[in-house]
Write a structure and sequence with these properties.
Layout lengths: L12 E2 L10 H13 L9 H21 L10 E5 L2 H15 L5 E4 L5 H12 L3 E4 L10 H10 L7 E6 L27 E6 L18 E4 L11 E5 L24 H16 L1 H25 L5 E2 L10 E5 L5 H11 L1 E2 L15 H5 L4 H5 L1 E5 L6 H16 L1
Parallel strand pairs: 1-11, 3-4, 3-5, 5-6, 6-7
Antiparallel strand pairs: 2-8, 7-8, 9-10, 10-12
Helix pairs in contact: 1-6, 2-6, 3-4, 7-11
Length: 401
């Protein structure tokens, strides 16, 4: 059924790519082709089941190859296909907690996705000590605080599970993974540090070399960069002990439930397409973001609003811009923008129903009027120069009012 818009209203300009992106036509074609031949259960032993299994494992190998996972050898890495990045984050944190053999400490920060924060809190209820890392006031990053925590930890403290969000969905700021080179993932042992990286926002725009990184686990989902929704993945370093949250024989015993083969094929095609033109796309998308910021800052200045770009001087994801308009209310502005035909957000999509301000902005210690007036605009592969022009044209009168 075709979606119908009010003909009297403008066609919406979509500036919420950090929440979800349009499905790439090549990905859609790959999903349709797989659906036509892989409708059987991949756990079935008959010919069609074996064909579905072959497509599933081929997709898994392709995803692993792009992400830099090691797919062979005694200590080969594993890729568990999940329902999305939220499940992947939960499986990583709680699964490693269960696999550690004893309790220790979980480190997390308020830049982390709600799924990661809730998993950390759940580990706390299971006896793990919790340490909330402070955020840098300018960039909103947590890597420096994580390194400091690692330096002050004792082996007697037991294992540590360190949660790191590579690209923050609230501010767009990027963590500098080079700072974490010393946080090496170990097998069972006293004082081990197990680093979980949520790369969901960054994976479509940054090269990832999982096996060469300090990460024990890495989560992502393809719907952030032209892939299907309803599927995600968790890469697990070889030798890292992890227990399932949902028992079953599928996914190497780490996730029960019949695998969605067509979505896995779409996942593989999406990650390959993202890798093929990553550098060019990142530059083009960053240029669109910078142009949008510059024009909205100018419009705000002319309206007498001291607008600012959050984490402007830090490393940032190329597609995300969090702009604060002190004196305006973020929810009122987002609703007015929607009526004017611009789709933007007041925070991450998973927390969009909440009236609470962004936890990351609060943790950065920003002034209340900045937090109150902050909205997120995010562009993507399908965003055009015309989209930017129309968005600025529609948002400028709202700032003047």
């Amino acid at each position: 059924m075709a979606l119908k818009f009010n003909m009297a209203a403008p066609v919406p300009v979509y500036l919420d790519h950090a929440a979800a992106t349009p499905l790439d036509p090549e990905v859609a074609a790959a999903i349709a082709e797989a659906q036509a031949v892989a409708h059987a259960n991949p756990s079935s032993q008959h010919a069609l089941g074996r064909a579905a299994r072959s497509l599933l494992e081929d997709a898994r190998d392709r995803i692993m190859a792009v992400l830099g996972g090691r797919g062979s050898g005694v200590d080969r890495d594993r890729l568990v296909l999940t329902s999305g990045a939220s499940e992947a984050n939960q499986l990583a944190i709680l699964g490693m907690a269960a696999g550690a053999g004893r309790t220790g400490e979980v480190w997390f920060s308020r830049r982390d996705h709600p799924s990661s924060v809730s998993a950390a809190l759940a580990a706390g209820r299971q006896g793990w000590r919790l340490r909330e890392l402070g955020l840098d006031e300018a960039s909103g990053t947590a890597a420096a605080a994580m390194v400091a925590a690692a330096g002050g930890a004792s082996q007697a403290d037991g294992p540590r599970i360190a949660v790191l969000t590579l690209g923050c969905g609230q501010t767009g700021s990027l963590e500098d993974m080079a700072l974490l080179a010393g946080l090496v993932s170990h097998r069972r042992g006293r004082g081990e540090i197990l680093l979980h990286v949520d790369a969901t926002q960054a994976a479509g725009f940054l090269p990832l070399e999982f096996h060469g990184s300090p990460a024990a686990t890495l989560a992502l989902a393809p719907h952030k960069w032209g892939g299907p929704r309803g599927i995600g993945g968790l890469l697990i370093r070889g030798g890292v002990a992890i227990e399932p949250l949902q028992a079953g024989t599928q996914e190497q015993g780490l996730r029960g439930g019949t695998e969605a083969v067509p979505l896995a094929v779409g996942f593989a095609r999406a990650v390959e397409l993202a890798a093929a033109d990553r550098d060019h796309t990142a530059r083009r998308v960053a240029a669109l973001r910078d142009r949008l910021e510059a024009r909205l800052l100018d419009a705000a200045r002319r309206a007498g609003i001291p607008a600012v770009v959050i984490a402007a001087a830090s490393l940032r994801c190329p597609h995300i811009s969090t702009l604060a308009f002190p004196g305006l209310d973020r929810q009122t502005l987002a609703m007015a923008a929607d009526l004017a035909g611009v789709c933007l957000a007041t925070g991450t999509a998973c927390a969009s129903g909440s009236s609470e301000p962004s936890p990351a902005l609060l943790a950065m210690g920003l002034p209340p009027e900045v937090v109150r007036g902050a909205v997120r605009l995010s562009v993507g592969r399908t965003t055009t120069d015309t989209d930017i022009d129309q968005a600025v044209e529609r948002l400028t009168p709202l700032l003047r009012r």
